[in-house]
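Tokens as discussed.
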């Protein structure tokens, strides 16, 4: 054990059941360097740990969780106002991540939000807010979605009003310069009067431009620098040098400082306007939910706010109305438009006991349904939450931009000072000749564009994915999908529709007729939820079943139990072979049925094979097209299934898949994924998200197929809301389009500075032109990201 540390932290641990648990945790925590003086109390469920730095705390939490216990922690989303560039978001992020008790913090410049995970025993949400505010920004806990939308609108209007004010005062200054150039002397003399110019420029400098001074002061106070520092330094140099020249008779550059501020405000306004458009998909989803619901109570129908609808309430929906909550139809048939939820344009027929979802539209006639999910639990709310979380997370490609931006502003200031000294000391041009290229260097630099390059593209792409029924649960998954080499498909419910049906029955025991045979099999299979079992139960139409006893399901094999006192085993080839049950005619039956593409289930009574059931599933109509398109993109395709080899290979051949892993138990699917990864292959797994959960979790990217009802519990990194397999291909294409878009953004963000700064330092760039380039560099990056809104296949 290391020496006792000065700092200690208390962790709340869940899952401990006895002294052995606390002793085990204490022993594990005592080994790593940096942790000391460990005390774990079983009664209070708390651990007191000595540590040196925040990384030691994160190390301790990981050790506890790796042991299978839990550590109580909170997650908070903060709205942050006042960030102007990547340096701001990076500064806040670093501060939060250095805070004792914070496990992770991510700050997004585009969404103006911070996502923070922290230990509830060590820090509170109020503490986090105070820390951000102390840095000079304004933080607050995230409120309702409507409030966030209003925030964007207010920011846009604020920048617009500042721009109008600044432009109104700057235009006469610009006009004076232009009239002077074209020798329109009478007007020029009036507009270029020093005191008039001072009167016009001062409000622009200190009212319209006050946000830059405020931001610069707050950053410099904490020994950091951002875009505000560059703008404040550049415009102040031009303004105060002109003020000095009023008294010395030198040239005035009031129009330079005023027009620079106006151009930068124009860029800010266009940027805020464009940033608002990046979240259009979220706004559309939010607008889908109606504000009121028509509820039937005590025989009367009353309209109430949707927030007051409770689970179990009976909802009445008229033709053309939007459904306010999720539920189950209790009375009536209908056709429902689910396009905004699933991306599927064809309306869906609904009947009694059908599931319906908030935000979808009743197409043709009234019906009633019982509320099953309300408020934050509705499918629509879950989708919005997933998309918002994805937009708030960083893609790995952004790390490079973050590193560059942390050094960017100090480097620009150093270059500007060097430029001034070189021009003044070595080129002997005087203060006036040296100050203009220095100002141009300061204002050409644009860390804003660098900070916006990645998150704007991620925001637009995740929103576009949601419109098409594709949910990316984070920017990292959006990026990673485009880098995969292979995709593994589950068969049932993925390549096929997941609705298997009995196609053929072969009985080899003359003592059983077909009705008795299927009734016996269905009576036992009724205790299983496996799709093949349900197919057998559904095939039995007599109704009444026998009672089964001593039932035991065999994962990846089948089921066994007693029916009418007889021992019954029903399962696939592997199970029957494992139990060494033999019948001379069996191989012929299996061969015939498997050649037809059937999954063959063998029924054994008291150790004797009595018959076979051939079950087949319908291949998805878009399965072959999907596989073909993926292969054209250079993706290797695999199928992993528990089905027998012959049947699996036949279905794989029908859709064009060349690589098949057959007779694989659910628990072993992850092992197949690992084998591919060990060969250096980046693998995505496509499955139903339940029995494929281990494989989905282990793969580089897990893609869960499922309906909207399962959206909140899917285990994949990406979820296909509807049943269209082609969306797997669309997700891949969207991922690659997004990464291409981000690289374009980073190129433009860098090229402005790589070309502009040397040109400005060489004195070849007027400060006004430099300011224009700076203002529009951010706009060009956001505009390029917005092109993804038009993305389609």
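Sequence:
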């Amino acid at each position: 054990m290391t020496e006792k540390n000065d700092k200690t932290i208390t962790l709340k641990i869940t899952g401990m059941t006895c002294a052995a648990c606390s002793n085990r945790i204490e022993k594990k925590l005592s080994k790593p360097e940096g942790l000391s003086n460990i005390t774990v109390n079983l009664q209070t469920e708390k651990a007191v740990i000595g540590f040196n730095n925040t990384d030691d705390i994160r190390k301790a939490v990981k050790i506890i969780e790796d042991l299978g216990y839990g550590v109580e922690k909170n997650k908070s989303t903060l709205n942050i106002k006042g960030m102007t560039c990547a340096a701001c978001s990076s500064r806040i992020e670093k501060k939060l991540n250095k805070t004792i008790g914070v496990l992770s913090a991510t700050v997004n410049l585009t969404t103006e939000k911070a996502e923070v995970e922290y230990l509830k025993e060590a820090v509170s949400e109020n503490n986090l807010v105070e820390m951000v505010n102390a840095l000079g920004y304004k933080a607050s806990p995230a409120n309702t979605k409507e409030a966030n939308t209003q925030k964007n609108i207010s920011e846009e209007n604020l920048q617009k009003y500042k721009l109008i004010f600044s432009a109104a005062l700057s235009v006469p200054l610009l006009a004076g310069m232009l009239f002077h150039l074209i020798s329109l002397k009478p007007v020029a003399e009036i507009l270029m009067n020093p005191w008039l110019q001072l009167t016009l420029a001062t409000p622009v400098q200190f009212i319209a431009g006050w946000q830059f001074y405020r931001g610069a002061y707050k950053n410099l106070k904490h020994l950091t620098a951002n875009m505000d520092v560059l703008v404040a330094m550049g415009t102040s140099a031009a303004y105060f040098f002109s003020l000095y020249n009023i008294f010395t008779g030198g040239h005035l550059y009031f129009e330079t400082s005023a027009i620079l501020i106006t151009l930068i405000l124009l860029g800010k306004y266009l940027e805020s306007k464009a940033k608002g458009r990046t979240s259009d998909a979220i706004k559309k989803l939010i607008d889908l939910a109606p504000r009121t619901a028509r509820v039937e109570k005590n025989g009367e129908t009353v309209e109430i706010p949707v927030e007051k609808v409770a689970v179990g309430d009976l909802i009445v929906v008229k033709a053309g109305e939007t459904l306010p909550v999720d539920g189950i139809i209790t009375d009536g048939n209908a056709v429902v438009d689910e396009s905004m939820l699933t991306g599927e344009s064809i309306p869906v027929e609904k009947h009694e006991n059908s599931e319906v979802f908030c935000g979808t539209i009743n197409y043709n006639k009234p019906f009633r349904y019982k509320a099953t999910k309300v408020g934050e639990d509705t499918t629509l709310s879950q989708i919005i939450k997933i998309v918002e979380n994805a937009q708030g997370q960083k893609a790995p490609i952004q790390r490079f931009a973050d590193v560059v931006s942390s050094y960017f502003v100090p480097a620009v200031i150093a270059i500007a000072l060097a430029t001034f000294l070189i021009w003044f000391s070595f080129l002997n041009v005087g203060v006036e000749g040296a100050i203009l290229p220095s100002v141009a260097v300061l204002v050409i630099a644009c860390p804003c564009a660098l900070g916006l390059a990645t998150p704007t593209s991620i925001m637009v792409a995740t929103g576009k994915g949601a419109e098409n029924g594709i949910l990316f649960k984070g920017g990292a998954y959006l990026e990673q999908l485009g880098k995969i080499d292979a995709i593994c498909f589950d068969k049932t419910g993925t390549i096929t529709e997941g609705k298997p049906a009995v196609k053929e029955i072969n009985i080899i025991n003359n003592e059983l007729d077909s009705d008795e045979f299927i009734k016996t099999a269905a009576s036992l299979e009724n205790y299983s939820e496996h799709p093949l079992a349900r197919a057998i139960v559904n095939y039995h139409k007599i109704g009444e079943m026998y009672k089964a006893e001593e039932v035991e399901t065999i994962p990846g094999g089948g089921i066994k139990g007693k029916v009418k006192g007889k021992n019954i085993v029903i399962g696939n080839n592997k199970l029957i072979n494992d139990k060494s049950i033999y019948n001379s005619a069996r191989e012929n039956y299996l061969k015939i049925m498997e050649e037809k593409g059937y999954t063959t289930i063998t029924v054994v009574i008291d150790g004797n094979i009595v018959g076979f059931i051939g079950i087949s599933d319908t291949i998805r109509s878009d399965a072959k097209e999907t596989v073909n398109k993926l292969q054209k993109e250079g993706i290797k395709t695999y199928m992993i299934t528990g089905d027998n080899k012959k049947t699996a290979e036949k279905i794989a051949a029908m859709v064009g898949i060349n690589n098949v892993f057959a007779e694989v138990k659910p628990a072993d699917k992850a092992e197949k994924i690992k084998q591919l990864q060990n060969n250096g292959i980046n693998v995505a797994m496509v499955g139903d998200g339940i029995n494929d959960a281990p494989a989905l979790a282990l793969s580089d990217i897990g893609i869960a197929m499922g309906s909207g009802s399962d959206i909140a519990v899917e285990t994949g990194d990406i979820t296909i809301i509807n049943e269209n397999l082609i969306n797997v291909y669309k997700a891949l294409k969207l991922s690659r389009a997004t990464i291409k878009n981000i690289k374009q953004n980073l190129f433009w963000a860098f090229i402005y500075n790589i070309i502009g700064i040397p040109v400005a330092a060489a004195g070849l760039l007027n400060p006004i032109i430099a300011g224009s380039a700076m203002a529009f560099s951010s706009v060009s990056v956001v505009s390029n990201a917005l092109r993804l809104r038009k993305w389609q296949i």
